[in-house]
């Protein structure tokens, strides 16, 4: 009986999550800002959801979209705060191992998760570089919420995309966001507004992190 009740409570929790997503999406249309839903375990072990950050418990954050994908974002990407110190060694080591610019890695992390290692999107992308579960498995990432594993896997993926697109950062970031199939179908950056603004913002962030690369050496 307890097991049945627990499953019912979890089912209603996921129904609530769906309702929260729908409500917040409608709210975002007028407020023009990104919203979050937090999931955590209650003291009785039941999965719970909230649109307010829980206090004194471990939680995961569900983002409704990637940080830089919101078309109507009010953020000034040329002046937004940069994050030079978080995960500095992991980023530099992975970038060196796979031969890509660490400033580009920072730009992608910033655009994907705003340097939140526990970020989870509604599509299921996880961690700093927002790896989808299937992609993570292909990259050998066992725990996408481990910052070190996520960075190494994400950088490996980025390096492969850069090789495929002959060092074209814009195509690589577009493929990272929309998928390689979209690039192939459209013969370049796809005509998705979310992807186009993402590529533009990654480029802005890349240049800004690049100008401060001496700080991270």
SSE diagram, text form:
Layout: H1 2-31, E1 36-41, E2 47-50, E3 59-63, H2 88-98, H3 102-113, E4 119-121, H4 133-138, H5 147-164, H6 169-178, H7 180-186, H8 193-211
Parallel strand pairs: 3-4
Antiparallel strand pairs: 1-2, 1-3
- Cα Rg: 18 Å
Question: What is the number of domains?
Answer: 2
Give start-end ranges of low-pLDDT stretches. 2-36
Major sheet characteristics: 4 strands, mixed
Number of strands: 4
* CATH class call of the largest domain: Mainly Alpha
Mean pLDDT comes to 81
Shape: globular
- CATH architecture level-2 label of the largest domain: Orthogonal Bundle
Distance between the termini: 59 Å
The proportion of residues forming helix, as a percent range, comes to 40-55%
Percent of residues in beta strands? 5-15%
Would you tell me which CATH topology of the largest domain applies?
Lysozyme
In N-to-C order, the SSE pattern is HEEEHHEHHHHH
**Helix/strand structural class:** alpha+beta
Assembly context of the chains = single chain
Notes on the protein architecture:
There is one protein chain. The chain has 217 residues and is α+β, with helices and mostly antiparallel strands. The protein has 2 domains: 2-63, no CATH class; 88-216, Lysozyme (Orthogonal Bundle), CATH 1.10.530. Helix content is 52%, strand content 8%. It is built from 8 helices and 4 strands, in the order αβββααβααααα. It has helices spanning 2-31, 88-98, 102-113, 133-138, 147-164, 169-178, 180-186, 193-211, and strands at 36-41, 47-50, 59-63, 119-121. It has a 4-stranded mixed β-sheet, covered by helices on one side. β1 and β2 (47-50) form a beta hairpin. The protein is globular, with a radius of gyration of 18 Å. Residues 2-36 have low confidence and may be disordered.
């Amino acid at each position: 009986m307890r097991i049945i009740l627990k499953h019912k409570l979890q089912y209603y929790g996921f129904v609530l999550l769906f309702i929260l997503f729908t409500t917040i999406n409608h709210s975002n249309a007028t407020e023009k800002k990104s919203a979050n839903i937090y999931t955590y375990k209650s003291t009785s072990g039941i999965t719970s959801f909230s649109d307010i950050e829980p206090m004194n418990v471990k939680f995961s954050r569900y983002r409704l979209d990637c940080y830089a994908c919101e078309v109507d974002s009010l953020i000034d990407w040329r002046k937004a705060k940069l994050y030079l110190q978080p995960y500095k060694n992991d980023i530099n080591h992975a970038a060196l191992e796979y031969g890509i610019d660490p400033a580009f890695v920072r730009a992608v992390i910033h655009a994907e998760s705003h340097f939140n290692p526990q970020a989870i999107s509604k599509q299921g992308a996880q961690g700093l570089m927002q790896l989808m579960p299937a992609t993570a498995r292909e990259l050998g990432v066992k725990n996408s919420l481990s910052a070190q594993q996520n960075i190494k896997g994400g950088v490996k993926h980025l390096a492969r995309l850069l090789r495929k697109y002959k060092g074209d950062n814009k195509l690589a970031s577009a493929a990272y966001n929309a998928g390689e199939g979209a690039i192939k179908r459209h013969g370049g950056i796809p005509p998705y507004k979310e992807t186009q603004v993402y590529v533009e913002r990654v480029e802005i962030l890349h240049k800004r992190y690049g100008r401060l690369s001496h700080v991270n050496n």
